[in-house]
TrEMBL record:
Keyword tRNA processing: no
Native species: Erythroxylum novogranatense
Subcellular location per the Swiss-Prot or TrEMBL entry: Nucleus
Record-level Gene Ontology MF annotations: DNA-binding transcription factor activity; protein heterodimerization activity; transcription cis-regulatory region binding
Record carries keyword Transit peptide: no
Name of the featured protein: BZIP domain-containing protein
GO biological process, one term: positive regulation of DNA-templated transcription
Length: 142
């Protein structure tokens, strides 16, 4: 019991109360700091979630854009193949007609001027009919 009495007297001494007050203030300060730290972490987490949602949305828009352009590319490629086949067929017809005209020229004696068959597949950068304008629309560029 005597120890208890000495400890209670030591608690009431001014030098120990000052230490307890410092400890209590430090604990309060630490709690407030921890609370601020948790609030910062929460705000950061919310910002990251918002940014992730925004990036997912942007990613989905880019995927849709890629899909649309891929479909357009496939369509243009298909149309191009059809046009190439038609050009080949027309070239063959023209050769056949020129052959008939040569035979007609040989048998009739009439001189016909037969133009050379342009082959746009061999020289795609040269237009077979340079006087004819090339038409383009805004839809082609999208």
């Amino acid at each position: 019991m005597q120890r208890q009495a000495t400890s209670s007297t030591s608690d009431s001494e001014p030098r120990y109360t000052n230490i307890d007050e410092k400890k209590r203030k430090r604990m309060i300060s630490n709690r407030e700091s921890a609370k601020r730290s948790r609030a910062r972490k929460q705000k950061l987490m919310e910002d990251y979630v918002k940014e992730a949602d925004q990036l997912k949305s942007e990613n989905n828009q880019l995927k849709e854009n890629i899909n649309r352009r891929s479909q357009y590319y496939v369509q243009v490629e298909s149309d191009n193949n059809v046009l190439k086949a038609q050009a080949m067929e027309l070239t063959d017809r023209l050769r056949s007609l020129n052959s008939v005209l040569r035979q007609f020229d040989d048998f009739s004696g009439y001189a016909l001027d037969i133009p050379e068959i342009p082959d746009p597949l061999l020289k795609p950068w040269q237009l077979p009919y340079p006087g004819q304008p090339i038409m383009a629309s805004a839809d082609m560029l999208q």
